[in-house]
Design goal:
The protein has 503 residues and is mainly alpha-helical. It has 3 domains: 119 residues, abc type-2 transporter like fold (3-Layer(aba) Sandwich), CATH 3.40.1710; 114 residues, Four Helix Bundle (Hemerythrin (Met), subunit A); 201 residues, no CATH class. The protein is built from 18 helices and 6 strands. Strands 1, 2, 3, 4, 5 and 6 form a 6-stranded mixed beta sheet that branches. Helix 8 packs antiparallel against helix 9. It is rod-shaped, with a radius of gyration of 39 Å.
């Protein structure tokens, strides 16, 4: 019974210890729930929405074909009227200025895909260093081209069925009527032969009208129209000779030429049937271009993921270490009783905080100094020396901003377990909302704004720009990190000063 009583006493002690800390209990229960709730409400889906610019042939901006293709691109590709161009230069400017995500160039001969016998490239250009988004763009471009191929195939088949249906019927009837004309000429029945010739003339006229109403998108269409014109002219000559009683041998010569013209049209139809099935089913294919400097990545696509995520991991680890150290710092002083000694000593709260800031900042710089050679020589992460100054400033700002968050936590909580708990909650928020795994574009605007108060959000973007693209961070990045550091320092100083006051 003694063992049971002792076990139950420690059990009750731990239960009461947690029960007497409502902040810890609330953090354990409500913290993860709130974070997951924000994630569920704010996450809009894994598939990105791509702002798309179209470059179409001159004069085709408002054409029915371009509008049909635009409607069949899918919901992922958002095309506004202001981003449809007839020149590629302004579209590329919009891409570099981040006004659009991709640029698609439709070639002038895209309507001739079924007559050239070759696939035509739709050039798709984007500017993206995230390998996940890059793969999404490649995949979505492939699916989009499939949809466009289906639409072009539907349009072509519809037009071809109309033309081929009437033309085939005309060719069959014409051959029968042509033989009938020969038989009646041989038997001397000129009137019946002339009536049949007139029927042939009317059929030829109808075929010419049908071809004229179909868009002239191929040389084959022009050849067919020329053949029909020649047949019509020969039939006019035969009809005139029959009416005037011309020589039979001359009429037979014209009938033979008509037969040759019909044979030529049959050859055109045969060529259409011998087209490569791949060209008919998939006349277009995507050809993508990434304008990010190729030297930024290794030739091995598997290593590219490591290179992309390594700066983000470094920023996340640096933030978590600084937050944890700072969060445990002040609470440890209170628990050890040294805060009571500080109150009677000739020092102030801001001096204590400043000294801790300096010590932990030096510790963070030493960690980065030891870590960077391992990243550069071990993982092949590029380190442009011309960005050394910007790199040091970003590391300093990220460190001080993270320390500020840690000291705010330390001033709020009442035990080391609470400090660790809230540090882990901040780490969990950073993983979800900083763009570490899921791009910020996937969240609604309010969640993206919330993510900006996390130092790692700006830190990982800055380190990726510095190390992978050899580009300096934007001024807004410096201002956000500096603002987070100043605001968190003021808050932690204000709360710690109240605790520091002599009682």
């Amino acid at each position: 019974m003694k063992h049971i009583v002792r076990i139950l006493s420690f059990f009750a002690k731990e239960i009461n210890s947690v029960r007497r800390q409502p902040l810890l209990l609330g953090g354990l229960i409500l913290g993860p729930f709130l974070i997951l709730s924000m994630f569920g409400v704010g996450y809009t889906g894994e598939r990105p929405t791509l702002r798309t610019a179209l470059v179409v042939p001159p004069g085709q901006k408002d054409s029915e074909l371009v509008q049909n293709l635009r409607e069949n691109m899918g919901a992922t590709f958002q095309v506004s009227d202001e981003h449809i161009y007839e020149d590629q230069a302004p579209a590329m400017t919009a891409l570099r200025q981040n006004q659009v995500d991709i640029v698609e160039v439709f070639p002038p001969d895209m309507t001739d895909v079924y007559t050239t016998g070759k696939q035509i490239n739709i050039d798709i250009t984007y500017n993206e260093i995230d390998p996940l988004l890059r793969d999404w763009i490649e995949y979505l471009s492939y699916t989009q081209i499939n949809e466009l191929n289906k639409e072009l195939l539907r349009i072509f088949v519809g037009q071809t069925q109309e033309r081929v249906g009437t033309l085939k019927e005309y060719l069959n009837q014409s051959r029968e009527q042509l033989q009938s004309v020969r038989n009646r000429i041989d038997s001397g029945d000129r009137e019946q032969a002339r009536a049949t010739v007139q029927q042939l003339r009317e059929g030829t006229t109808l075929q010419l009208l049908a071809l004229a109403m179909v868009p002239d998108v191929s040389s084959e269409n022009s050849d067919s129209a020329s053949n029909l014109q020649r047949i019509k002219q020969l039939l006019d000559d035969v009809d005139r000779d029959l009416a005037e009683g011309g020589a039979l041998d001359q009429q037979e010569q014209r009938l033979s030429e008509i037969d040759q013209q019909l044979a030529a049209m049959q050859a055109v139809a045969d060529r259409v049937r011998t087209l490569d099935p791949l060209v008919i089913v998939s006349p277009l294919r995507s050809k993508t271009h990434n304008i990010v400097p190729i030297s930024s990545f290794s030739n091995n696509p598997g290593i590219a993921y490591v290179q992309f995520y390594t700066p983000a991991v470094v920023a996340l680890l640096l933030q978590h270490m600084m937050v944890t150290l700072a969060a445990l710092s002040l609470i440890r002083e209170r628990m050890l009783g040294t805060l009571e000694m500080f109150r009677v000593a000739p020092i102030s709260a801001e001096q204590v905080l400043t000294g801790k800031y300096l010590g932990y900042t030096l510790f963070g710089l030493l960690i980065m100094l030891a870590l960077m050679p391992l990243l550069v020589f071990g993982l092949g992460i590029p380190f442009p020396l011309n960005q050394l100054g910007n790199f040091i400033v970003i590391v300093l700002l990220l460190t001080t901003a993270s320390l500020g968050w840690g000291f705010v936590i330390s001033a709020l909580v009442r035990s080391d377990s609470q400090a660790v708990q809230f540090s882990m909650l901040l780490l969990l928020m950073s993983v979800f909302f900083s763009g570490f795994f899921i791009p910020l574009k996937s969240f609604i605007p309010s969640i993206r704004t919330f993510a900006k108060i996390l130092p790692v959000t700006h830190g990982l973007q800055s380190l990726q720009q510095l190390l992978l693209l050899n580009q300096a961070p934007t001024t807004a990045t410096y201002l956000w990190l500096l603002g987070i550091a100043l605001v968190s320092f003021v808050l932690s100083w204000y709360m710690f000063r109240r605790q520091f006051q002599r009682r």
